[in-house]
Amino acid sequence: MTGQNTITVIIHSGLIKSSRGKGQKKFEMPIREDYRIEDVVRDLDIQDEKPSLLYGLNGETADDKDLLRPGDTVHLMLPISGG
Amino acid sequence: MPYGYHGKILHVNLDTHDLQIEEPDEEFYRTYMGGSAMGMYYVLKHTPANADPLGPENTLVLALSVLTGTPISGQSRMTAAAKSPLSGAIGDSQSGGYFPAEMKFAGIDALVIRGVSKTPVYLYLNNGEFELRPAEHLMNKVTGEVEAIIKSELKDDKVQILQTGIAGEKLVRFSSLMSMSNRANGRTGMGAVMASKNLKAVAARGKLRPQTAAKKELNEMARWGASNFEESDVYGLGLYGTAEVTIYQDKGGGLPTRNWDSGTFENALALDGTTMAKTILKERDTCYACTIKCKRVVEITEGNYKVDPLYGGPEYETLATFGSYCGIDDLAAVAYANQLCNMYGMDTISCGATIAWAMNCFEEGLISEEDTGGLAIRYGDAAVMVRLVEMIAKREGFGDVLAEGSAKAAEIIGKGTGDMVVAVKKVEMPAHMPQVKRSLGLIYAVNPFGADHQSSEHDPSYRGYPERMAEIGLTDPQPSKVMNEEKVKFAIITQYLYSAMDSLNICQFVFGPAWHLYSGGQLAETVRMITGWDTSVEDLLRLGERRLNMLRAFNFREGFGRDEDKLPKKLYKALQGGKSDGIQLQEEELETAKNIYYEMAGWEGDSAKPSRKKLDELNIGWVADLI
Lengths: 83, 627
Description:
The complex is a heterodimer.
Chain A (H helix, E strand, L loop, with lengths): L5 E6 L14 E5 L6 H7 L10 E4 L2 E2 L11 E5 L6
Parallel strand pairs in A: 1-5
Antiparallel strand pairs in A: 1-2, 3-4, 3-5
Chain B lengths: L8 E5 L4 E5 L3 H7 L2 H12 L13 E4 L14 E6 L6 E6 L3 H7 L4 E5 L6 E6 L2 E6 L8 H11 L6 E5 L1 H4 L7 E3 L3 E3 L4 H7 L2 E7 L9 H14 L6 H6 L5 H6 L21 H6 L2 E5 L9 E4 L17 H7 L8 H14 L3 H16 L5 H4 L9 H12 L5 H4 L3 H8 L9 E2 L2 E2 L9 H9 L13 H5 L1 H6 L13 H19 L16 H12 L5 H21 L29 H15 L1 E2 L4 E2 L1 H6 L3 H4 L3
Parallel strand pairs in B: 1-6, 7-12
Antiparallel strand pairs in B: 1-2, 3-4, 3-6, 4-5, 7-8, 9-10, 9-12, 10-11, 13-14, 15-16, 17-18
């Protein structure tokens, strides 16, 4: 799915199986008005991971309250364990 | 024609100021490849048994590898190896930045430094020419100032400088080697070793790049890494640095708090990478040719703790040791302590952990203001923590005792303070807890240079990355909190791979067996592309095993055996609070794991000594003659 009202979501290991991304690492999602990163987390059903979740937005650090625009790329990550 | 290396080792005799180039053959490079294994070759050959770590007989080796300076992420790293003044066992420390690549371009593969100069000197490696220069004017100055003076007198802003700081000059036992004023060969006191030789710094500059055997293939591998980075599991390291893990550790009950009495800190969020990103982060920095940019640069211009971006920013380990270890949630104070360590040249792990030990002893009433020169050293007191960092670097007052490290300080003070020490082989433990990552306990205990979190893969990865684990023969994933025979196998095999990575001097965030950008198999491919040598993952595991046996042999000669492979008492006490509440290690579990480990390693007898058969098998039979 590609279109004017979509964002690209990249989810990293540890989240792939538990999310509604159907096992995909990178996919597009439609967005609504006033759609924020926390809405992505909710729509992918990974709220349980939220205390440890890290967010990226267009190559920069991000907050779950950040507002999304069409064409944005959102990263959802868990920290790696051995750094 | 050699690929990946110059075939030149520079021997520096500081007694005579004689500089000699040795040109080892290809077999030497194929056997040791560089870094820690190459360093151990020279340390074992040139440092006699029972040498004073701060005396002329100790040999300091700064070694690069056959990969250093090539155009792929994660290769600009250098090993410093010598007998450790902190432990009395082998010392071994790795660092990245731009110095390693520039040292390679200056025309050498390693420096072997012996003796003591009568007057302070620094070594200038300049495009195949080498000289010792006076350094009296560089003494007792902070690292940033020394960098500026050397660059000015060499009229070269791009010269890269490795130096020992004021703490090294004061022989602080956990003093570091610093480059760029913010990259540290931090662990095991290599700064004090270099300072004890009256060698203040090494400056490097050059254009002598070794040839690469398969340049086109290597470029493709580098492009693959750059294009896959965004979807890799190290992407978060780029955005948030190693501090990304603080909250994750805390939620899992694995954030060492108040000198390891707990695995959870009530205000861990204040020390997290996300908080740093929103507050004091100025920019992200990287090492030569690396795409990840995991280094933090912070700036604080107001308040009690002003931080200059020149001195970088705190890593996760630093945030934990000066933060949660000490019960401190003041990010600015922790960043300032990090700056002081980089200015004076001290290991942030040992420094923070030693202060946490002192706080623990004070809170327990084992030491008082009589011992500390009037300082009340309590958990949560950021001002006292910062004051102690200064006092340690300059060996002022009670700082003179703490500059010995927590284990030696406990020996000096007595009064039961040894029970509060959280160290292995007198090297303070890093901020990953074996209580929740069980195989780490075994690796912390047996690792020749003390507890180290970068010497094996951590337990969660076995289940998390089964395909990459299978590349190194690990096919039976286990949960994080169990310790069984398969876990010992996981520990030792990943230890061999990490040991190889320290000999190839590559970054463990870039190459590795699990979450890394490149896999172990891709590392073997990269070695082949650069050197032209057919190299398999098995060859790398064997290289790692060879290096580990050399480290072990050095220790055996110094009287370190099975009895020194032990964990501190605190780890056998139940943790308090959070997800790890009530969890403790069991001595019997560790001893059983050690038996399995020694058998797998081919180390024999009560002392777990590397056998002649094993050393012959690894093509280092000459080491057996030393022990």
